[in-house]
Amino acid sequence: MASHLSTRDRLLSLIDDIELIAKEIIEVAIAPKPQKLSAADHAQLTELLLSKDAELKKTLELADEQAKIQEKMNELKAEVYNKDQDISLLQRQLKDAEQILATSLYQARQKLASIVKSRKRPVPSEELIKFAHRISASNAVSAPLSWQPGDPRRPYPTDLEMRLGMLGRLCDLPLNGHAPSTLNDLHRITTGGVPASATNQFTWHPSGELHMSVGGGNSVAIDGRGKDAPAQEDVEVMSTDSSSSSSSDSQ
Amino acid sequence: MENNTDHSERLSPITVQEVDVDFLPIVYEIIRSVERDFLDNSVKVQESQGCSLKVIDLQKKLDIARTQIKRLPGIELNKQDQLKQFEILQTQLRLKRELLQKYRNMCSFETSFK
């Protein structure tokens, strides 16, 4: 029964017992002679008081031990709390890593799939070099090193070539509901003569601005450059092969 | 006021050595003064008053001991239950350490492609 009680309750009940016994002893001592207890009973009460006092002291020793255990438990609790913090931090980091890895795995799988695909249909390197040579031979990538103003070899089309191309011809499409229904129609339109209205649609001005003429003879300046000058400088630096003759190309 | 006292009692734990449980000397003194026979009446009255004071002292001492016991740390449970709790905490800490170790050692990646 007593073992189920907490040490605090045991101590408090022992004090209650000591109080009761002490009161009993004092009352007996005060009581008139006929009501007094026999010496044996008195001795028994005294012994009981002594045993309770001894038990109280013993229980206090136990409380001292428990206080030390409690101290260790507090340290353990603090350590458990720290570990909890570490675990939650690690879990969060692992979760992040998992997300990053999942993305990388997805991309790696895509790359592996494309590797497998390329292995199934290999292209010989000679073929690739030949094709690259064909592309660069026509100056479609960059102008030759010995390029001079007026040289038609360049990696972009001239104004005239643009107007003759499909994009230039698309501007001449009739707007009265007749749209080219077949590829042949489109081809016929684009391979026809250059219309007079298209010839002066874009004109270069010495200032370097591109002007597009709209109805009524007005022209709208299209600022091809960036808003800030450094950006424009960057563009000029990057395209050294082809930008030096923008004004003379339209001739 | 009493609530504040209770609160401060709960906040400041004391050690067992600070608990005063020496009740026997006072009980002994009380009994001795009761059982003494005095011929002089005035001395008898004086002794009786002294005895009453000692009884009040005993009562006070008992109350103080109760209050002090309530401030003792780690005695909310009996020793067996406390040791069980201690073991539970130790197990918890061991498991958490193992979990942390597992988390730290789990970063071994398979790098070979098949």
UniProtKB/TrEMBL annotation, chain A:
Residues 59-93 form a coiled coil. Component of the Mediator complex. GO terms for cellular component: core mediator complex; mediator complex. This is Mediator of RNA polymerase II transcription subunit 4. GO terms for molecular function: transcription coregulator activity. InterPro entries: Mediator_Med4. Keywords: Activator, Coiled coil, Nucleus, Transcription, Transcription regulation. It comes from Leptosia nina.
Automatic annotation (TrEMBL), chain B:
Keywords: Activator, Coiled coil, Nucleus, Transcription, Transcription regulation. Pfam families: Med9. Component of the Mediator complex, a coactivator involved in the regulated transcription of nearly all RNA polymerase II-dependent genes. Mediator functions as a bridge to convey information from gene-specific regulatory proteins to the basal RNA polymerase II transcription machinery. Mediator is recruited to promoters by direct interactions with regulatory proteins and serves as a scaffold for the assembly of a functional preinitiation complex with RNA polymerase II and the general transcription factors. GO terms for biological process: regulation of transcription by RNA polymerase II. Component of the Mediator complex. Belongs to the Mediator complex subunit 9 family. It is found in: Nucleus. GO terms for cellular component: mediator complex. GO terms for molecular function: transcription coregulator activity. Transmembrane segments: none annotated. SUPFAM superfamilies: Mediator hinge subcomplex-like. This is Mediator of RNA polymerase II transcription subunit 9. The lineage of its organism: Eukaryota, Metazoa, Ecdysozoa, Arthropoda, Hexapoda. It comes from Leptosia nina.
